[in-house]
Design brief:
By secondary structure, the chain is an alpha+beta fold. It folds into three domains: about 60 residues, RNA-binding S4 domain (Structural Genomics Hypothetical 15.5 Kd Protein In mrcA-pckA Intergenic Region, Chain A), CATH 3.10.290.10; about 80 residues, Pseudouridine synthase (2-Layer Sandwich); about 100 residues, Pseudouridine synthase (2-Layer Sandwich), CATH 3.30.2350.10.
Length: about 300
């Protein structure tokens, strides 16, 4: 395919534009139209926010394209506009916003605390485009937990995601920095979780009044009295990972509420690394990853 218009110039480099003729994934389309680029080159362009679809930046290689859309390959790396104090926007379309939330930022305000939150930051961000725009939280992360979070741009999309969460979300994985090394190094923890009046979640094998919860764990690395653990949730209960790691005698570092004795990184050692789900509107399979915080790795003093 040939560029649709005369190349646009930004500084000393030239933009390229291409019109989509038939449905395709973004990576496939770019490989076909940029013969001098391989998958690694294109992923670099995506990371650098140099790929736009209808003048909106996209970073997911598997984003679906439709006929008559215009794909722009920017000649220069885009100015960073999606980094905010406390979060980074990983993806945005007309229906969803996906972020990487930093530790210490509330997902949304409470009746007792209405400080700067992920919700308030994104609400301000969307209202800059249109004062009537709103955002709706789909799921939450604890204040001290970092990682991938989803927000909806309409109440309808929020409801669609929440109502079909079990079927829609195909994978949800976390990484924890835990005290000690679990034995065996891989396994499954299951129990019924309840919350006390003091807002402490506790575990029981008695099904009465509890929510059944399953956590799969696998030790990735271990050193210096700590382990880096990969966790995949089959259920998504409040404080599930924190309680289950306490159950097996290896609480999350920095989690005094659930049994930790140490705090080597000055924060809770829990990070939402990956989420894979079906887009509620387009039905595309979506995957988003947030890199493991370097602080976690520094405790182990080795790379993974």
């Amino acid at each position: 395919m040939k560029p649709t218009d005369q190349p646009r110039r930004r500084g000393q480099r030239t933009d390229q534009q291409f019109t989509v003729r038939q449905p395709a994934e973004l990576m496939t389309f770019l490989l076909e139209n940029l013969p001098g680029k391989n998958r690694s080159n294109i992923k670099s362009l995506l990371r650098n926010k140099q790929i736009l679809v209808d003048d909106r930046v996209y970073t997911q290689f598997n984003h679906g394209l439709q006929p008559d859309q215009v794909v722009t390959v920017a000649g220069n790396r885009a100015a960073e506009i999606s980094q905010y104090r406390g979060l980074t926007i990983l993806f945005e379309d007309d229906h969803l916003i996906v972020i990487n939330k930093q530790s210490g930022l509330l997902s949304m305000g409470t009746s007792k605390e209405r400080t700067r939150t992920a919700y308030s930051i994104l609400s301000d961000y969307t209202k800059r485009v249109d004062p009537d725009n709103k955002v709706f939280i789909i799921h939450r992360l604890d204040r001290e937990t970092s990682g991938v979070m989803l927000f909806a741009k309409s109440e309808r999309v929020q409801h669609l995601m929440q109502a079909s969460w079990i079927d829609t979300v195909q994978q949800r994985t976390y990484v924890a920095l835990a005290e000690g090394v679990p034995e065996p190094p891989a396994g499954v923890v299951s129990s019924y979780l309840r919350e006390s009046k003091a807002l402490i979640v506790y575990s029981s094998q008695n099904p009465e009044g509890g929510q059944f919860s399953i956590t799969n764990y696998n030790v990735i690395k271990a050193a210096n009295g700590y382990s880096l653990i990969h966790l995949e949730l089959e259920t998504g209960r409040k404080n599930q990972i924190r309680v289950h790691l306490q159950d097996i005698g290896h609480p999350i570092a920095g989690d005094a509420k659930y049994g930790a004795k140490t705090n080597p990184i000055g924060r809770l050692g829990l990070h939402a690394e990956t989420i894979v789900f079906e887009h509620p509107i387009t039905r595309e399979d979506m995957r988003f990853d947030a890199p493991v915080p370097k602080l976690f790795l520094s405790v182990l003093k080795q790379d993974i």
